[in-house]
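Lay summary. Proteins are chains of building blocks that fold into shapes, and those shapes determine what they do. In this project we predict the shape from the chain. Here is one chain we studied, written as its sequence of building blocks.
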Amino acid sequence: MRKKTENTKRAPGKEFQGLVWLARHPGMLAAPSAAVASCAHFGYTPTGIAAGALILGTTGWCRAHPGSFDAYAAPVLRAWRRRWLGPFLGRRWRDLMDACDLSKEHRRTGATLYPRIVRVRSYTASVDTAYVRIVKGQAPSDFKAKLEHLAEGLKAVRVALQHVEPGLLALIIQRNEPFTHPIPAPDMPRDSADVDLAALLVGEDEFGEDFYQPVDGTHSLNGGATGAGKNSIAAAKLRSMAPMIRDGLVRLWVCDPKQLEFAWLRELVGPGRYADNPDDCADLLEAFVKDMEKAQARMQRGKLRSVPVSAEFPLNYLIVDEIGTLIAYNPSRAREITGYLAQITSMGRATHHSVDAFVQEPSKDVVEIRDLFPNRVCLRVTSETHPDMLLGSDARARGAIADAIPALKEYAGIGFYVDERTRTPIRVRFAYTSDAELDELVAFIRSGTQLRAVS
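And here is the predicted shape, written in a compact code that computers can read:
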């Protein structure tokens, strides 16, 4: 039974709606009130001088120290402008909701209900995050189905969705391509002590921040079509941990069935740790598993549950290029190779045995042990189903449109990974390592001479 207070069809008066709006946005009343109070108390001239000084000081800050201004002031000013002068205000927002069929009619009063913008954050010039309070009767799936329509209405490249809490969504709006130029290759640290194997610099994210990837204590599956820039991932990691390779704290193992992409590593690995055909790769994986079992036995004898990376327990870093070639397209050794990889990805964490695998076709038919890789990256792919296969269910619906990345050379190295805390797909670009920089890496590891040191 309805309450008596629900019998009326009249909406609250406009004046009370205005008071509610001001309560939600106190700054819109506080700023003009402060200006009026200042004029009344101090006079127009002092108030104008103070306002001019504020504008001049802000401009001077922008010109004198762009780094701090872009980090602290620019996001606030940009968010204010886009919130109050952009598509999120009043009639423009309601028109967008109507056009995308995201408004609802109140069955009792007949009033049209609209999702409400709570706040807007603009961390970079290319990305906005609009927090939206949805109306009763709506669900996140209603917005997921309209992401492409919202992107067109907002004149954005893409719109991703994050479910923040019940009734509150975050629309992550990419207004343009944040990566307009290649990311330079990471500088090689001077000493092993300067390397953090849990956070190797490999590129930048869409917010303009350095992007780090772990290599110790995890296993990575990296998907991407031909020419997507998959090799950039391994090259950046190798440069970031070059001193540890030089000092023997990281041992490289390479399966290179294409016999091209990682041939330059052949001279850096020890005997028996480079293979370039499926049969030799199977033997290499068997040797890798035996090395892992020996480390397990040493730890068991010493009653150790974990050990730091050291000369006795180095990080064994295995690169497996085109894993599909080894597993799906070579039936005679597929089961054996899959078994070895399953052992490594299941038990290699404690003994510092890590795998970085690369694949073009990430389906379960090709990589049935896909779920044993905790760390995932999806570069440009050829199917709209691939982002979900690599990054998890609904990753594409939440914005990981890796299949929409243009198949052009200037877009190589661009892709997505899923933030561990928020589960939001983040657009990233891996650093480009030229042939000369690969030669520099090889020379540094072989000779121990730092050719380009970090300043």
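What the prediction tells us: The longest strand covers residues 158-165.
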